Amino acid sequence: MNKTIMIIVILLLAASLFTAEKAQDFQLENIKGKMVKLSDFQKEGLVILDFWASWCVPCKKALPELNKLHKQYENVNVVTICTDKPRTQPKAIAEVKSHKYEFHTLLDSKKIVQKQYNIINIPVTIIIAPDGEILLEHTGFKRGDEKHYKEVIENWLKSLPQSDKKIEESE
C-alpha cells in the first residue's frame, strides 16, 4: 500500500512539473485613469507584458521595438507596466506620450503586480497566450531581443486555426 501511495505522489509531482505556468490576472490603472485587467487584453489575443521604469535605459530602448510589435500584429497587445514611484510617473507618462507609443501603459507605483510576478530586475518581458500560458519570460533588453519575441509570436500564430490569424502588413 505504501508503495502505491508513493508512486501516485511521484506521478503527481512529475505531472506538475510538465504543466505550463499560467499568468496571474491583475487590475491596474492605465495612464488615462481607467482600471483595466490583464484578462481584458487576453480576450483579444496574445499579450506581451513588459515591466519598465523611466530611469531604466534598457527599458527605454525596448519600448520602440515593443511598439512596432504592437502595431504589426492585430491580435497581439503590448501592455507595459510602469513601475515608477508616484513622483516620477509624470516623467514616464511624458515618455510614452512624446514618442506616441500606441501600446497600453499601466501604472504600478506600489509594485503590486511586480511582486505578484516576482519581478526583481527590469526590464522583464513576458509573452502570454490568451489561455494564460506563459510562452516566454525574458529579463533585460538588448538590440535583437525583439527578433526572439517575434519568433514566439509567429509560432503562436502558426498554431492558430487559419480563420483566427490576423496579421497586418509588416513595416
How would you describe what is shown here?
- Strand 6 (124-128) and strand 7 form a beta hairpin.
- The model is unreliable at 13-19 and 167-171 (pLDDT under 50).
- 39% of the residues lie in helices and 21% in strands.
- The chain has helices at 2-17, 38-42, 57-72, 89-98, 112-116, 145-159, and strands spanning 27-30, 35-37, 46-52, 76-82, 104-107, 124-128, 134-139.
- It has 171 residues and is of the alpha/beta class.
- A 7-stranded mixed beta sheet has the order 2-1-5-4-3-6-7.
In short:
The protein has helices at 2-17, 38-42, 57-72, 89-98, 112-116, 145-159, and strands at 27-30, 35-37, 46-52, 76-82, 104-107, 124-128, 134-139. It has six helices and seven strands, in the order αββαβαβαβαββα.
Which SSEs are present, and which pair or pack?
Layout: H1 2-17, E1 27-30, E2 35-37, H2 38-42, E3 46-52, H3 57-72, E4 76-82, H4 89-98, E5 104-107, H5 112-116, E6 124-128, E7 134-139, H6 145-159
Parallel strand pairs: 3-4, 4-5
Antiparallel strand pairs: 1-2, 1-5, 3-6, 6-7
Q: How large, in whole angstroms, is the Cα Rg? A: 18 Å
The first-level CATH class name: Alpha Beta
At CATH level 3, the topology is: Glutaredoxin
What is the total tally of β strands? 7
Low-confidence stretches: 13-19, 167-171
CATH architecture: 3-Layer(aba) Sandwich
